[in-house]
Structures are given as C-alpha cells and as structure tokens.
Design the sequence.
C-alpha cells in the first residue's frame, strides 16, 4: 500500500465514516426543534435520550460484531427473552433483589454472546446463520418455558433502572447510555479496539500479525450479548412486561450502525458514529410520530430515508473504497 | 456493494476443481441425504406414536407446504449466489397476493399474472439498482424496500381483499395422485432457475460475481448487471409464490408473507441447502433439499402435536448444526482462513 | 451425464402425462349451483371496506339484548338464537369421540388463555376420547393444509379458529363435506359450518369504550386513539364504531396512532402526545395489551391519568384498582373458547344448536371490577375467561 493511499484512506476513515451521520442527526434534531418547540426543554430532551438509550446501547454492541466482520441477529431475541425471563423469575421469587436479577440477566447475555462467538469461530458457521438460529432458539425456548407469556410482574425496584431518575431529574437510562458510550469509546481506543478493526479489515493480515482472531471475534459477540441484556433491563424498566419487547430490534440496531457509516463486512467505522446512527434513527421515529405522517405510511417514509441516507454515505466514500481493494487482494 | 461477504472470502479458482471431487462432500448430496434421513426418522417416530407420516394426506401435506417457501427460497438462492440477499420478499408476497386477487376480481387471470410478475420485476429491479447504483448494502437496501412496501400495504389495505376465481384456485387445490399440481409450478421454476444458473452465461457470471466480485469484474463480467438480474429473478420467483398463495387462499392477504416470515425462512432454507451466504457456492438443487427438510420437520412436529414454541428451538438447532457440518470438511484445506 | 439426462427426460414426460390423465383429482370443493349467489353475497359485504351499517346496528342492539341460557355460565348463553336441527350429525355407534381443532396459533396471550380454557373444557367431558390440535402458527397456508389433514383423520367434529376471514373459506367449505364443522372467533365467508360461535363483535366493543369516554369527557375534549395495527378486520370494526361515537359527541380526536402492540412504542407515542397537546382528556384503545404503558406515560409525565379504556387483561385491571383510574374495559371474552367444545358435543348428540351462536360480551366497569380482578394471576391473563370452575384453575392459568 503506497503512503499516499494510506494517508488518504486514513483520513477517509477518520472523517469519512462518521461525517454523514452527524449531518443527518443535526438535520433531524433541527427538524424536531421546528416541529416541537418544547423538544429542547431539559425534561423532554432527557426523555428523548432515555427512550433512545436501549437502541443506542444495542448499536454499540452490534458495532463490535459488525466492525469485526459479523452480524448479530439475535439481539432482539435476547431483549425479548430477557424481559420475559425476568418476569418469569419474579413470578417464582417475588422478593429477589433487583441487583441480583440485573446481574443475572447480564451474565446470561454474556453466555448467549459467548455461544454465538464460539459457534461462529470454532464451528465456522457464518455469524448470520449462527445468530439467526440463536434467535429462533431463544424465542422458542423462553416461550416454551413460560407457556407463551410470562407469569410474573416486574417490581418497581427492578424497573427503576429503566423508568426512574437519579436525583429526581436525571434518568438512570441516560446515565447507562453515557457509561456505555464512554466504555465503548475507550474500548475502541485500546489495543483490543485496534485489533478488532484490523480483524474485520482483513482477518488474514490480522492473523499474520499475531492477532488471536477467534478470541477477538468471540469477545465482540460477548460484548454484543451483554449490551443486548442491558438493553433488555432498560426496556423492561421502561415499559414493563411484554411478550414482544424486542421485536424488530435486531434490524433497528443494524440499521443504526450502518447509518453511522460502519461498513457491513467489517474493518471500518467508529463506535461513536454508530451510536449517533441510533440517535438519528430514534429522532426519525419521533419526528415521524410528531409530524403525524399517516400512521400507515410511516414505514414507507422510514424506508426511503434509510436507503437515501446510506446511499448518500456510500456515494461519498465509494471512490476510496475501490482504490483500496486491488492493493489488498494483490 | 457486496452484500454480506462478512466471513472469509471464497476462492473462485478452487471452486471448479472441488465441484468435480468427492460427491459426498457436496452439500447438495448432503442435504438430500439429510432430507431422506429426516423423513425416515420422522416416519419411524410418528409410527411409534401410532400415526403414519407418509400417508396420502401426509405426503400431500409435506409437498404442499414446500411450495410457497420453495418458490421464495429458489429465488433467494439466485441473489445469495450472487453475493447479495433479499429481505423484502415477505412484503412482496403480501402485495403480490393482493394485486393478484384484486386484478382477478375485475379482470382476467392472465392480466393478473402479468400484473403480479410485472410488479415483482419492478421491485426486483429497484432492489438491484439500489444495491448496485446507490451502493447501499443489500441488507439495508432490501430492508428499506421491505419498509416501503409495508407502508404501501398498510396505507391501502385494511384486510383481505379481492377474490380469486375458482378456475385459478385449482392451482392451489388440485393434485395428481398425492402430488399437488402446485409442485409442478415449483419444479418448473426450479428447473428454469437451475438451467439459468448452471447452463447460461448469466449463471456463470452470477457464480463468478458471488465468488469474488473484484476478480469477476477484472475478467470482464459486468457484475452490476449480474446483480440486478439476480434480484429481478428472485422477485419473479417471489411473484410466482404470491400467485400460488393467492390461488390457495382465494383472496389477497396483507399478512400472507410476513406472518410466515418468508424472509428469514427462505434464507434459512437456502443456507440449509448448502449455499454459502457469502455467495459463489451452492445452488438451486440444494435449496430444494433444504426446503424439504424444513417441511418434513414441520410435518413430523404436526403429527406429534409438538408445542409450536419448541419447534422453533429445534429449527434453530438444525440450521446451525447443518451449516456447521458443511463448514467442517473444508477445515482440512490448509490455505483456508479462519471464519 | 447430460446425455443420459436427455434420454431420461422424454421418458419422464411420458410417464408424467400418463399419471396426469390417470389420476387427476382435486381437493377443491366442487362448484355446485349455490356458488353463484354466495359469491355475490361475499362481494356485497366487502364493498364498504369493513364498515357495514347493518352489522353495526345489529351489534349495538345485541349488546343491549338479554341472553338466553344459564346466567352463571355466559359461555353457554346465546343472544337471539335461531335454533336448527342437527339430527343428521348425530354420532352413530358407541365409542369415544375424536374431536379435532385447527387453531390459527397461540401467538398472543389472548389465544394462550383461550387454548387453556378449551383444553380444560375437553377434560370435563369423559366422552371425548381424543382431542387433536394442529397449530398453524399464524400461517394461512399452513392452516389450509391442517384443515385438509384433519378432515382426513376420522374426526367426529372439527373446530376451526380461522387465522384470516376470507382466505380460509375454501378450506372450510371443503371440510364441511366430510365432517361437521364448528367455526369460532373469526368467521369465514361460507355458511356451511354447522354453527359459528362468536361474541357480539367489534362494533359493540368499540362503541362500549367510546360511549364511556363521551360520557366522562367534556365536549371538544381531546382524545388519543391507540390502535394495534392497520388492516386487521376485527380491530377495524372497533375503531369505526368508536369514530362514529366521537364524531356524534363532538369530541376532538387529536391523535390516531398504531402501536404494533408494543408497550415501549405506546409509551413513546403517548408521551409525545402529552408534550404536544398539553392536556389529553381521554384515551381510547382498540385492545388492552398496551393500556398499562399508556397509563405509565401519564404518570412519568407527572400528569393525572385521564379516563382510559382497556381490556380485561390482569395488569390493566390491577393498575385500575391500585391507581383508582377512571376506566372501562370492554372484553372480547376468552370464555368463547369453551363454547365450541360444548357445541360439538351437542351436535354429535343431535341436539339443537343455533346457526349463529352469539355469546354475550360483558364489560368490566367500576361496579364489577372486584368481581373480575383475581389476585395473583399473571399480568397477561384475561379475566373474562370463565375458567374459575375448570379443572386445574388457577395453577394451570399461571397463578403462583
């Protein structure tokens, strides 16, 4: 790789992979301000972030998997299974302390991610299939266990994390969102982050450079599993027991990450941009809701905007990408 | 533009040599053997339970249940071979049944068939152009298309609509001996797709594009055109599935495609049939085997009255296990990158 | 290899042609003389895009009528029945009854509670030797196959809960020729079934909820209407009846939104509506799954919960009582899952049953709330299950 291209690509990476999503986010937030003058009052803005938090956390987790060259389609099922399992558990043990249940859910999420990662790396099953299978297994298993719907209620103490506020004004969900954001940012700056991106960029090159590729990719799945479990805790807190809490969230999370300019297939994109993608998506949902676009047409508008936004993002950087490929395959 | 070449890139050069080697390693042979094994095992288990899996109604049921998924999965194979994928099929089926039933109510069956196939081709063309022209990843492009179609359905329909004349409903209900006539529709479409993929220039280009898009382009393949063609072919198959479902349901149904989750089910069937999700390897024959496995499993579960939630668990395990088995023999190849 | 294929092909074609001629048959019901008029009837009922003035008026009248039958067993009651003779279906010979059921699926808690009711009802009757259930998992195509399979399985009677109204008509018609069929919940567009069982219906449901709001909310008050999803026939009727009531009373329907039945989305929609309109004077819902989320949205915004409608789901009834809401809960009772079994047995004994068995559709109000709210039932349980006298209650329904 010549130095000139290297510099160009590097610049493209730093600026390129995120720039369009920030523009999109600014446009959407401005549109929200015009539609809804009260939107930037602290209360409603914090409420917006709180609502976006589960998706943002899912996007951060999904980013880890996507940037290392995979997919995680099981996150929606993890959220559903998490909410239902928590309710079912509280049905049998109504007095369980919330810390224990939350920690248990996070651990279970980690196990699901670990299994996803091991199947993908050790058995060489493409992650799309692994996580699609995991989605069927989790949904089937949790409803088989509960006979179709959970048989307990979630106590307020457990729900406070997703519903309540710290100090009466700052929602816990916002804090969780910030913490995950900071952790992800720090993680991607660390050695691990760099090896993760290198793995997604070219597994072979990474392996030759001494990266333990299977371990790195498995850890990425593990991260996504934990993030999904955390999202489950927030969703359960926010809206309570539901048998369809995570429906469609896997697609929303992947869309958010791609909106953030992260390339499916791995190797490029920043985690902050991915989370900005999640905020953009949530802003879009809110805007469509407030605009009162005929309820039925909402999804059409959403489809157009997502395609257009990703198309615009791709158009800017297509040239750089094409230049890069021949040298790598040479 | 490449869709989901997320796992190790396949090596097109090796493909031709490996295809001629050792047939038992071939996923196509494998999946058909698996289908036979599942049928045999299922027959035994059901027999122990006191039933008969392969009674006349049983066989008809298995075949009948394969048709709709089979048509979609055959189309899905075409796009996946080319390295793309299509998540919009479920909504396209719903719209297809609605357009078919409404056109048949007011006009002729012939116009309806043309209308559905025309609409499908247009959606496929749009998918292909978004993927190649706008360079939107196929996952997002077709997901976006799915949302667009969903809005269209929800805005225009409030439930089942239209009416399919009895003459056309025969496609959904007639049978020859134990074989439903719709199976011949599936067979016809599958043979056509098989011929296109294995015997025509377009087909070779599809394999080449899916195997390594860059190399294909360097050797003169018009990869964009190939991807667009694959998407159109896929959508036409979906259109055929919609026509079949319209014949079976007697009306158009806004949820015909989505409730059966044809998007993910068809991808599962394709992968079960040994087609690599990254593209370039596999084909229609294996896909049909994959569809048969799923359909026989369904029938066995039905006979045994297995809890529907438990079915999903088994399906998930089967899909992962099958692909793990396909991936296994290649591990011995020294140059293979870790996935 | 390709050469052999070329030789095999004509042979295969010849065999195929032979088979075609020899054994062509159809599972499609023969088109008899009555095909004409019934087809005409179907297109009539469809023209209005689900709103049917006649049905609307009939349902509102039925909702006020007094049902016949035992008062403490609403699942055996019927409204304005027109009895018919069923002697021709009387089961001949002795031996246990083989009862079959083609279920659309168990994809929501309403159906899960319902299926539990039905299975428990079957246990009450020793004469039922075998009860076969096929689950279509929400797929019309599969349910058609299921019905075909069941009608070839020596069932004495076939119960069908159709996934979709129009699309299962051909399959049900076909089954009618072989076995007495009982359809319930959603109807099909044929009257070949021995009896069709359902509660009063969607118009009555929607009107009951809307009338409560028109009574409690001042004129010009702002109403938020939350619907599950567009295009579901039984839900469309609920909304069209509510719309009529709101328009007549001069209420301002500020928002009509689809929630997909997702509590999280519901909460977001209601919060947005609150910040947008300031005060909301009433909330109308086309079904209960998300009412608690709507209630919480008001709480989280620090507002009083306005008059709200829900359904007989446990979590809503509990919130209603705990938070002293002004509320009403029309029901689409799950006790209707018991009736088909009872009807099947009556038919097989040759006893009279009504052609259209309309069940009462009680409403949970402030007065009778305590009667229906059972402590300890799971949050997604439906109180109007009529299941208290069934074997296994309440443990099998999930009480801890």
Sequence:
């Amino acid at each position: 790789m010549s130095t000139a291209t290297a510099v160009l690509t590097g610049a493209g990476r730093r600026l390129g992979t995120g720039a369009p999503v920030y523009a999109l986010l600014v446009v959407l937030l401005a549109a929200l301000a015009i539609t809804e003058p009260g939107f930037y009052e602290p209360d409603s803005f914090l409420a917006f972030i709180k609502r976006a938090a589960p998706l943002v956390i899912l996007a951060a987790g999904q980013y880890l998997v996507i940037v290392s060259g995979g997919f995680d389609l099981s996150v929606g099922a993890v959220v559903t299974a998490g909410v239902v399992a928590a309710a079912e558990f509280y049905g049998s043990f109504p007095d369980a302390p919330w810390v224990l249940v939350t920690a248990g859910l996070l651990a279970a999420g980690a196990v699901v991610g670990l299994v996803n990662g091991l199947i993908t790396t050790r058995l060489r099953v493409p992650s799309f299939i692994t996580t699609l299978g995991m989605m069927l297994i989790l949904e089937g298993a949790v409803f088989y266990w509960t006979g179709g719907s959970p048989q307990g209620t979630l106590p307020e103490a457990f729900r406070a994390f997703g519903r309540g506020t710290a100090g009466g004004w700052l929602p816990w969900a916002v804090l969780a969102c910030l913490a995950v954001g900071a952790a992800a940012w720090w993680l991607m700056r660390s050695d691990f982050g760099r090896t993760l991106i290198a793995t997604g960029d070219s597994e072979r090159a990474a392996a030759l450079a001494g990266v333990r590729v299977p371990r790195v990719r498995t850890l990425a799945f593990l991260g996504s599993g934990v993030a999904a479990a955390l999202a489950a805790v927030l969703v359960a807190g926010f809206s309570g027991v539901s048998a369809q809490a995570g429906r469609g969230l896997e697609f929303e999370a992947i869309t958010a990450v791609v909106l953030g300019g992260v390339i499916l297939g791995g190797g490029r994109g920043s985690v902050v941009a991915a989370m900005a993608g999640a905020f953009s998506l949530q802003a879009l949902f809110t805007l469509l809701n407030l605009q009162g676009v005929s309820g039925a047409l909402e999804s059409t508008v959403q489809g157009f905007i997502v395609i257009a936004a990703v198309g615009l993002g791709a158009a800017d950087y297509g040239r750089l990408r094409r230049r890069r490929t021949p040298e790598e395959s040479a | 533009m490449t869709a989901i070449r997320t796992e190790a890139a396949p090596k097109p050069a090796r493909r031709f040599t490996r295809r001629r080697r050792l047939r038992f390693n071939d996923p196509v042979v494998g999946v058909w053997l698996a289908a036979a094994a599942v049928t045999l095992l299922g027959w035994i288990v059901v027999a122990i339970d006191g039933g008969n899996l392969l009674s006349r109604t049983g066989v008809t049921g298995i075949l009948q249940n394969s048709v709709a998924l089979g048509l979609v999965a055959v189309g899905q194979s075409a796009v996946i071979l080319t390295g793309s994928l299509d998540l919009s099929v479920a909504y396209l089926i719903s719209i297809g049944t609605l357009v078919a039933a409404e056109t048949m109510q007011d006009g002729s069956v012939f116009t309806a068939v043309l209308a559905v196939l025309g609409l499908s081709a247009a959606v496929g063309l749009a998918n292909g152009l978004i993927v190649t022209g706008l360079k939107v990843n196929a996952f997002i492009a077709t997901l976006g298309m799915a949302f667009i179609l969903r809005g269209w359905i929800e805005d225009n329909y409030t439930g089942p609509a239209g009416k399919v004349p009895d003459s056309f409903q025969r496609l959904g209900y007639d049978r020859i001996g134990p074989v439903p006539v719709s199976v011949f529709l599936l067979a016809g479409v599958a043979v056509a797709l098989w011929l296109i993929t294995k015997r025509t220039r377009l087909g070779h280009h599809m394999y080449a594009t899916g195997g390594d898009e860059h190399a294909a382009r360097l050797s003169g393949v018009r990869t964009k055109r190939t991807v667009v063609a694959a998407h159109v072919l896929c959508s036409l198959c979906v259109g055929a599935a919609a026509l079949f479902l319209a014949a079976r349901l007697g009306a158009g149904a806004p949820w015909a495609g989505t409730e059966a989750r044809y998007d993910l089910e068809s991808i599962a069937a394709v992968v079960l049939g040994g087609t690599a999700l990254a593209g370039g390897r596999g084909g229609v024959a294996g896909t049909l085997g994959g569809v048969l496995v799923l359909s026989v499993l369904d029938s066995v579960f039905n006979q045994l009255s297995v809890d529907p939630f438990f079915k999903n668990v088994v399906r998930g395990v089967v899909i992962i296990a099958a692909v793990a088995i396909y991936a296994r023999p290649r591990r011995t190849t020294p140059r293979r990158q870790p996935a | 290899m390709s050469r052999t294929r070329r030789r095999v092909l004509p042979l295969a074609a010849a065999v195929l042609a032979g088979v075609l001629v020899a054994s062509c048959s159809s599972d499609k019901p023969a088109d008899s003389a009555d095909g004409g008029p019934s087809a005409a009837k179907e297109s009539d009922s469809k023209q209005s895009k689900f709103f049917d003035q006649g049905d609307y008026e009939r349902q509102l009248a039925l909702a006020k009528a007094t049902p016949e039958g035992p008062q403490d067993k609403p699942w055996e009651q019927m409204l304005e029945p027109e009895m018919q003779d069923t002697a021709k279906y009387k089961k001949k010979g002795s031996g246990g009854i083989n009862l079959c059921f083609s279920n659309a699926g168990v994809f929501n808690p309403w159906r899960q509670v319902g299926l539990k009711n039905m299975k428990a009802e079957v246990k009450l009757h020793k004469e039922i030797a075998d009860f076969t259930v096929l689950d279509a998992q929400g797929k019309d195509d599969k349910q058609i196959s299921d019905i075909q399979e069941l009608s070839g399985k020596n069932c004495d009677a076939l119960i069908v809960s159709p996934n979709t109204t129009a699309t299962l008509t051909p399959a049900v018609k076909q089954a009618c020729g072989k076995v007495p069929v009982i359809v319930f919940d959603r109807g099909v567009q044929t009257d070949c079934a021995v009896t069709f069982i359902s509660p009063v219906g969607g118009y009555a449901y929607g009107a009951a909820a809307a009338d409560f709001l028109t009574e409690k909310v001042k004129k010009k008050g702002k109403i938020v209407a939350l619907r599950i999803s567009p295009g579901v026939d039984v839900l469309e009727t609920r909304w069209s009846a509510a719309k009529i009531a709101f328009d007549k009373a001069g209420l301002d329907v500020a928002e009509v939104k689809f929630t997909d039945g997702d509590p999280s989305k519901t909460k977001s929609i209601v919060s947005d509506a609150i910040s947008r309109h300031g005060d909301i004077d009433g909330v109308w819902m086309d079904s209960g799954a998300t009412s608690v989320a709507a209630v919480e949205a008001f709480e989280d915004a620090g507002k009083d919960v306005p008059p709200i409608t829900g359904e007989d789901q446990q979590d809503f009834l509990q919130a209603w009582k705990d938070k002293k809401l002004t509320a009403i809960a029309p029901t689409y009772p799950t006790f209707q899952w018991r009736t088909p079994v009872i009807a099947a047995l009556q038919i097989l004994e040759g006893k009279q049953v009504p052609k259209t068995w309309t069940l009462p559709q009680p409403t949970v109000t402030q007065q009778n709330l305590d009667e229906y709210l059972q402590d300890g039932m799971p949050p997604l349980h439906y109180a109007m299950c009529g299941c208290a006298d069934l074997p296994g209650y309440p443990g099998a329904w999930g009480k801890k």
Summary: Residues 1-7, 31-48 of chain C have pLDDT under 50 and may be disordered. The first strand of chain C starts at residue 24 and ends at 26.
